[in-house]
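User: I'm new to structure prediction. If I give you an amino acid sequence, what do you actually give back? Let's try with this one:
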Amino acid sequence: MVVTAGAAWGQTGEDSVLIRRLADTILTDGKAYGNLRVLTKTVGARLSGSAGYYKAEKWGQAALQDAVADKVWLQECMVPHWVRGGKDEANFWTDSKAGMAGNARQMGALDILALGNSVGTGPRGIKAPLILVHNFDELEQHKDDLKGKIVFYDYKFNPFFVETFQAYSDAVRYRGAGASRAAKYGALAVLVRSMSSSIDNNPHTGAMNYSDTTHKIPAVAVGLRDADRLAAVLEDGRSVVSVSLHTNAHMLPDTLAHNVIGELRGSEFPDQYITVGGHLDSWDPAEGAMDDGAGCVQSIEVLRALKAIGYKPRHTIRIVLFANEENGGRGGRAYAAAAKAAGEKHLLGLESDNGGFTPRGFTLSLSPEKLEAVQPWVSLLKPYGVYELAKGGGGSDVGPMQSQLGAVVGELRPDSQRYFDYHHARNDVLENVNKRELEMGTVNMAALIYLVDKYGF
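Assistant: Good question. You get back a string of structure tokens that encode the predicted 3D arrangement of the chain. For your 457 residues, that looks like this:
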């Protein structure tokens, strides 16, 4: 596609007017928050393979049809089927290191959640002394002391990272690999400080994985206040701390699920695609409002708004509600694989999976030269809160589009400061989503899709 430099910069009055029309319909007649209300309060939690997930698939089909998609369909993929299996429970005791009889004292319950994909403790549970480590280096230093113990990883979010996703990326290795690292030295289970800098005690679950398929030990997240309480007793050094765990988690055979896809057919290049989406699955303790109900309803609203103002896209625009982002990433890989098999050309895969907060920018996997060429678009987005188009990738669902299809990928980047207060926790509910912030993110997503459809990269 050949365009003049001036047009590529997106500085026409026509662009500003059309984006204003998109904003007007989203801000005055928007359906995103209403759709989110139905998804969270009627469907609720929707972990892959659960009854809630299949209910969510039906919701997604109906929402895309209500948005007047030209076509709506389901795309099959096999997904992991992990179940929590009941309530996760833990208690802890202290005992004087002097070992005097009758000195053990029960300190109370711990607020915990089994980590996704973890094995359970078995019906008898596990009770063992607790050993504190702050990082993997300390784990190695204590490797001779771990046999028969429960390891507590007390690794805190680094407060020096202003961008909280950097703090998450730094800390999440203890959730992902902590169990296998400790099992190697004979540990019986692990507790992991929740991936959050919140001040409440809600435990935050999330996916973990085993590097050794034959030696698996239970892994749980512990609430932040309880983590501080445990750490204080252990660091005091005067008492031995023991913990009892009881979890019922287990993995069932893979099961069938679906990506839910809606489409606006392109008028000039119907066989070239722009994809925008979020993931439909969520963790089981809550409603999945931020993660990622917000991204799903924003993506559906992009389609509705374009249709509502009578916009005829040049390229085919697809809305994808991806399956199984949380504990497998199967939906994103299935979508890219199907597109590759069909020989489809994809211009952009855009994802919203960072919460429904005030929009700040987008990341795009463009070369430095192409990224510089689209910088003038920022002037069209600034009235709606976006101030940068930055170098970066997309989320895990659109990542396979880059590696398998050669597509540009990107994601909406809202303000990040509150996201990990709710991420994978029981308080990820509708009441913590601000309607206006959710809509402003949608306005910018719709505007960027319009600009890419008109000008390409």
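You can read the tokens as a compact description of the fold. Here is one thing that stands out. Residues 237 and 370 are 57 Å apart (CA to CA).
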